[in-house]
């Protein structure tokens, strides 16, 4: 169910295989066994200046040093979208054109953009435009939904989207 209790329209998955530091089959299997699933909750009753911190007990079971990215699943415009990369260094939210094409969203205004983005392999990328879509994370009763502006780009990626990590 999405934020208005209507059924999900679909699910966006991605299967990718990239070069890793641990490229043997045995190493990939071991790495997969070490992965844990985390859920992020926000409670409206909690103080807004609540500090979230991680201690040594949070590192139990994690082999360091590690280079695991923070990759989440979120609901965007009634689609569960997997492989969304949280990038605190990004200044914009990105939705890749192939993801948006799969979603077939209707009823949302797509706005053309004339300013290029920089940071994709060092060159300028001209976005197709931008679109504001509802993004939801968490599960009831702690589900949070916000309207998010996404820049839509047509470039290869192993992710379906990039979030700038800002609240």
How would you describe this structure to a colleague?
- This protein has helices at residues 25-34, 97-103; strands at residues 10-12, 71-76, 79-86, 93-96, 110-111, 117-120, 123-125, 129-137, 144-153, 161-163.
- The protein has 167 residues and is mainly β.
- The protein has a single domain, classed as Beta Barrel (Cathepsin D, subunit A, domain 1).
- Strands 2-3-10-4-9-8 form a six-stranded mixed beta barrel. Strands 6-7 form a two-stranded antiparallel ribbon.
- β2 (71-76) and β3 form a beta hairpin.
Reading the helices and strands in chain order gives EHEEEHEEEEEE
Report strand %: 25-35%
Low-pLDDT segments, ≥5 res: 15-22, 33-43
Radius of gyration: 18 Å
Instruction: Based on Cα principal axes, name the global outline.
Output: globular
What is the assembly state of the chains in this entry? single chain
**Count of helical stretches:** 2
Number of strands: 10
Largest sheet: 6 strands, mixed, barrel
- The level-1 CATH class: Mainly Beta
Distance between the termini: 23 Å
- Spatially, the strands of the biggest sheet line up as 2-3-10-4-9-8
């Amino acid at each position: 169910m999405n934020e208005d209790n209507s059924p999900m329209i679909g699910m966006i998955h991605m299967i990718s295989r990239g070069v890793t530091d641990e490229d043997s089959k045995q190493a990939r299997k071991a790495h997969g066994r070490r992965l844990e699933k985390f859920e992020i909750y926000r409670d409206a009753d909690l103080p807004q200046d609540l500090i979230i911190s991680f201690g040594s007990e949070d590192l139990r079971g994690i082999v360091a040093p590690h280079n695991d990215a923070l990759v989440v699943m979120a609901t965007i415009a009634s689609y569960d979208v997997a492989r969304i990369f949280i990038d605190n260094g990004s200044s914009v939210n990105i939705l890749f054109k192939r993801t948006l094409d799969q979603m077939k969203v209707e009823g949302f205004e797509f706005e053309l953009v004339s300013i290029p983005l920089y940071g994709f392999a060092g060159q300028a990328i001209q976005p197709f435009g931008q679109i504001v879509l509802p993004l939801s994370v968490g599960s009831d009763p702690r589900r949070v939904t916000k309207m998010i502006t996404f820049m839509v780009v047509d470039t290869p990626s192993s992710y379906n989207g990039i979030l700038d990590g800002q609240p």
